[in-house]
Specification:
16 strands; 2 domains; globular; about 450 residues; about 25% helix; alpha+beta; Porin; 6 helices; disordered N terminus; 16-stranded antiparallel beta barrel
Amino acid sequence: MIRKLILATLWTGLWAGLLPTLAAQDSREGRIRQMEARLDRLEQKLDLLLNRLLEQPETLQPVLAEVVQISQQLEEEAAFESHVGSENGEESPVPDAVATSSSQVQNDLEPPEPRVPINGYMEMHLNHDGFSPTTLDFHRFVLLFSHNFGQRIQFVSEVELEHGFVEGGEASGEFELEQAYLNFRINPRLNFRAGMLLTPMGIINEAHEPPSFNGVERPFVDEFIIPSTWFANGAGLVGDLGHGFHYKAFVMSPLNGSFFDAAEGFRGGRQKGFFENARNLATVGRLEYRGYPGLNLGTSFWIGETGFDFRDLSAQLKIFEFDTRYSWRRFDGRGQFVITDLEDAGAINRIQQQQTGVSPNLAEKMRGFYLEGAAHLLPVSTSHDLVGFYRYESFDTQYRMPESFLPLREFDREAHVLGLTYYPYPDIALKFDYVVLRNASALIGVPNQWNLGIGWWF
């Protein structure tokens, strides 16, 4: 009887953890991938506990309590994924027999905690570079709300307050609507989505919650080459093609080439849903393969006209991206490569110089990539996690210049990021990193920096 109760409890955790992982297809995918890695570690802990039970029957009660605690942890982690799965029109049922056994075990120990119908994430940073003043910043406060209109239509939203304070007419923080869309479920292979959407480009832009990546700040490639966080009005299709393949294909409002610059590339061109110019819609797509345990391969593209502020100038922009993530036992790895192509970059430079007196010195091509390796340093038997990581980044917003324009070498940059991420609980991350930042200029140097951060989601 006891053995059946234990196995039922374990299966509850596994079903609750795995089924939402297969179902979810939206911006919380980064959380799901991290949960899969944690699930592997928790399974190893359960094996150890069962061995102890078989070897020492007198330890039955404490082992059973520990098993139930781990199972409850899996179910708590899965609650968010189950909610996300429903947002995307995917069902993630738990078998009735398993659910009944789980409820019986929980009732024997303590009543389950109530579920909060609001999700969110927050993060606070301490940044020091020896050049600028040391800053302490509550960087992000984000809440996510959703609502189901029956079984076929769901509403999903994300509201973000950056830097803790917004003041009208003054330089301060930002209050943004990053997501607000309706999802129409037709079948698992075909779902229609429309509203304010995150651009499905790269790893971080959709999965940008702080516990889902190493380092206090997001990778430089995802700031200067891919302008994360990047969102816009649009509509399109999302689906599971089977055999491990998942896709997203949208038409969205384009970037505004009038606000591109040499240092930050396309970042200033995000229209952010505010009276967006939609004379020519951009097309964006992403394809992922998740058919092998621990492996995720992805590729993205974005193509759109960005010269709508300039007369008789299209300035088509193309962005292509490739990424990979892989987890094996106690090790994680990820990498990303991005290349861009901006037509008529020279014409934009000349027009801007005529109108403002200053050329933005835009490049025809920008390029960026990074490679990261991480290891889980604590024994599997511990309930906490400590991750050590190293990331190398190379990002050049002046990679190829149009004819008669010279590159600014200070924008050909590389970074070595070394740090630790401590998880007292899977949804809470305490972070430290040290960044060695370099550029190709012999005249303009950049200081090294260290950062402390804490982030959480629920």
